[in-house]
Every structure is written in structure tokens, then in C-alpha cells.
Amino acid sequence: LLFPVSNLCGKCRPRDTDLLQPSLNFLYCSLHQTTPSSQQRAVAVLLSNVSLLELLQKVLECTWLQSSPSEPAHLSSEDALLCSAWLLVASLLLYQHRYNTEVHQTLSLDLTEVMNAVTFRKKKPILLLVSIMQFLRTVLRQNFSSSLLVIVVQNTAQGATQPQPSSLQDAALHPLTTQQVFSFVVSLQNLLVHKDSLLSQAVVVCLETLVEYLYVKNQDVALHVASQPWHRFLLFTLLSGVQKSFLQPEVLRLMTLFLRYQSSNIISQKEISQVLQEAAEANLAELPEATSRALHLFLCQV
Fold it and tell me: Which InterPro entries did the record assign (predicted)?
């Protein structure tokens, strides 16, 4: 089925949402709900379809070409298609890297446009924000070195006038710049304020991956990002008004991140003790899987 469905997608236009959206979902599910041996073959089939990849390129670019909706919570058919496309491309990046599959057509994306797409000023549905962050997490984990993806970095006139220390930092963080990193962190922080569980978990996981990337490239920048005082306000914003709030998966993973990078100005012994107390009083067998996994990571880090 992958052959006819992927060929069908390649003959569509980005506006053919009624046909494309379920088709891309089928391709996505085919990649994830199969055996490893079949998965490798499925990736090879999709990456050999040049028309499909060209179509995905056009669909992704619609993310910043379309006007912002008046109701960001509403998921239109165009937004649903974008969600499917971003998730499918993130999966293709992941599995192409895992199996070292031959690439017949590369995707080209402007890094600035992608990172700006998740800024809080752009009114986008939560599912679309989550899908784009899943893509960003994948490229960060691959150090922007995928043979399937070409990252376009726009050269600005400001770059030549920056002081030398900043230029050295930018060189270490390439293709990101220091300014992009800090702007992106602010965007992630602002998205956390929405207090939507799905969005919060996606933001925290993306922040984890970003700091891991930065730590390899430039430890000073990574530690600076992890110890931003604003994080403490965000932590308590997530905690407000929720019973047993420390056992939310996004809260646990956020606190684990601060512990890992020793951000003692963000999380204190008091908060650690509160988590341990709540965990001791909870029925661990009844905790959701995401919470159990996050609690395990937190305790290992402690």
C-alpha cells in the first residue's frame, strides 16, 4: 500500500487537504506501527519517492505563508495537514538517520522561519505547535547533520558588526546563533504559560534537547539557559491550582532538567522534598505511564 499511497501524494497539490491529510497519516502510521525490518523498507520506499518529498517541501512552507487564524485553538483542515506533514518529516529524519537510508531528494528549510513558527506571537493551534517542536527536537538530536535535510541559514548584516566574543559563540553553536537560542528559549517559556498538558510536555522535551545540544557545543551558554531565573516563575505557574501538582510529567521533567544542570537558583531542596513526599503518598501503580517515566528520571537524577 505504501507505493500507491505515496505515489498518490506525489501527484497532489498542497491545497488537496481532503486527500493529502489522511494519506500522510497513513504513511506516518505505516512507519511507526510495523516491525523494524519492515520499517527499514518503508523508509526506503518513501525516501525514493522524489515527488512525495517535493510535495512535503511545499506543504511545510505553507506553515509561514498562511495567515494566522483568529482562533488559535481551532484546527482547520489546512492546519491538520501541516501537523501530519511535520510529524511525517520528523519521522523520516529519525529513521533515515537510524538506517542510513539512501536519499534521492533533500528537503530545504529556513531555520529562522521554523523557529519563528513556534513563537507565542504567532497564533497557531496547539497540535501544530507540538508537531513543529517534534521536528525541531529531531534535528537538534541529530546536530543538524541529516543528509535528508538542508538547513538554510540567512546571513544578516548584523552578523558582521557583532563583537568578537559573540561571533565565537555563534561559530560554536552553528547553525544556531546566540540570539536565536535566547529568542527560542523565550518562545518556549511563553508557551509553557498556556498550561496545556500536551503543549507543556512537548515544550519541556524540546527544551531538554536544546540544552543537551548547547551543552555539547558551548557549556557556558547551556548553563546560562538552564539557570534563567524566569524558569522558577514558570515552574510555579505550572504548579498553581493543581492537586498533587508536582507529579505532573511536565513538572517532573522540568525539575529533572534543572537538577541535571545544577540550577540551584531554580529548584531548591524544599521542592525536591515536596516531590519525594508526594511520590511517597501516591499509589504508584495508578500513575499514568508518562508520569511514572518522568518520576523515574527525576529520582535517578536525584
Answer: Immune_Signaling-Apoptosis_Reg (IPR052133)
In the chain, the amino acid numbered 73 is A
With beta carbons less than 8 A apart as the criterion, state whether 138 and 90 touch.
yes
- pLDDT at position 165: 44
Distance CA 135, CA 155 (A): 23
Amino acid code (one letter) for 138: T
What distance in Å separates the CA atoms of residue 20 and residue 298, rounded to the nearest whole number?
41
- The 3-state secondary structure of the chain reads CHHHHHHHHHCCCCCCHHHHHHHHHHHHHHHHCCCHHHHHHHHHHHHCCHHHHHHHHHHHHHHHHCCCCCCCCCCCHHHHHHHHHHHHHHHHHHHHHHHCCCCCCCEEEEHHHHHHCCCCCCCCCHHHHHHHHHHHHHHHHCCCCCCCEEEECCCCCHHHHCCHHHHHHHHHHCCCCHHHHHHHHHHHHHHHCCCCHHHHHHHHHHHHHHHHHHHHHCHHHHHHHHCCCHHHHHHHHHHCCCCCHHHCHHHHHHHHHHHHCCCCCCCCHHHHHHHHHHHHHCCHHHCCHHHHHHHHHHHHHC
Q: Would the pTM of this model clear 0.70, i.e. be above it?
A: yes
**What's the rounded Cα separation, in Å, for the pair 45 and 245?**
45
Other beta carbons less than 10 A from residue 99's beta carbon: 15
How far is Cα 237 from Cα 246, in angstroms, rounded to an integer? 12
Question: Which residues of the chain fall below pLDDT 50?
Answer: 70, 156-165
